Structures are given as C-alpha cells and as structure tokens.
Amino acid sequence: MLDKVDTLLAQAGSDRKHILSATIYVKDMSYFADMNAVWDAWVPEGHAPARACVAAKMAREALLVEISVVAAEI
Question: What are the backbone dihedrals phi and psi of residue 16, each rounded to the nearest 5 degrees, phi first?
C-alpha cells in the first residue's frame, strides 16, 4: 500500500518528506502495532507528519488499512 502512496505523491509532485498530515484507518485496532512499525520504517527520519489513527469500516472487506495523506508540492 505504501508503494501506491509513493507513486501518488510523485504524480502530485511531492514525496514522503513533504507529507504534512496523515490519517490512517485500520480495520481493527489490534493491527495498530504492526501498522505503526511499517509506517515508522517508511517515513524518513525527521520527517514524521502530524498523524491520526482510528478504527474504521473499510471500503472493501479485504482491506485492513486505508491511508489519507496531505502533502506539500515540491
């Protein structure tokens, strides 16, 4: 999923270092620790955006996580 975020950021003229905020929706908060580990490894050190994480019903049953980001254009 984060590869897709990288692609969309590049298409919009941005990148991970310019994410201003992220809202992460998880199907169940029992996935939080795993999601957090993946997120922390993906976000460049020193560039962590404001972030919220909430449990939510997914758009498709098979999804475990959905992410919405706001980024600055570079």
Answer: -55, -35
